[in-house]
Amino acid sequence: MPLKKDCDSDTLTLNRLRKYIVEHKLKPGDHMPPEREIAEELGITRHAVREALKSFEVIGLLSRRPKYGTVLRRVDLRQVAQLTRFAMIRDKEDFFELFTARLMLELSVIPLVIMNIEEKDYAKMEDACRRMEEAIAAGGTERAIKNADEDFHQALILACHNRFVSQYSALINEYFQGNDCGTGDMKPNLLRTVDEHRKIIDCLRHKDCCGVQATLKGHLWYVVPCMALNENALPPEWKPV
User: Fold this and answer.
1) Is the dihedral of CA 105, 108, 109, 110 positive or negative?
2) Which CATH class is domain 2-72?
3) Band of the pLDDT at 7, cuts 50, 70, 90?
């Protein structure tokens, strides 16, 4: 019972601090007032304020440095994913659900990408293709090649210019990092991967939504062999033809 009381108290303090930030219209880049000032206004101890600030710091909502103070940061869900990955992705079944979420997001966002994409977005995707080709030609490590591949897909999502979609995508992609329970060996298909990336770019330039989605389905599918476990759990329209 005491543990539950402590948890309830911590939650209440976090909610009070969240409300304090909202009511004072503090935004990313703003300095938080001193702990003493916050504690006096909220009617709680400095220790409680300090612990609440630590919780926000852990999930990336603020940064704290000596002689600089406490500064609010832009939300980055990748930090949350780093903290929770070990508990979320334990086996291939978990990875299948993660892959399903990624597939759903990338396929459904394409119409918005076509509507909002800018030349700078094409440049980022082209750069990822170039770096991937250079890594392949130089016999680079599989990690370097995968990094370029991941950069391409992140640039694709960012091209929708919707920060909420981009954050959800970053969260999902972070769960993929350091998790090999479902990813396949890219080496036999390296050139195919680059060719499909360039095909996606070409379809985007021609505003061919169906072409992008068809290429993405085949592109993502063959590098995730765990699909064989639950292939029938996906809608037919999500599967490559």
Assistant:
1) positive
2) mainly alpha
3) low
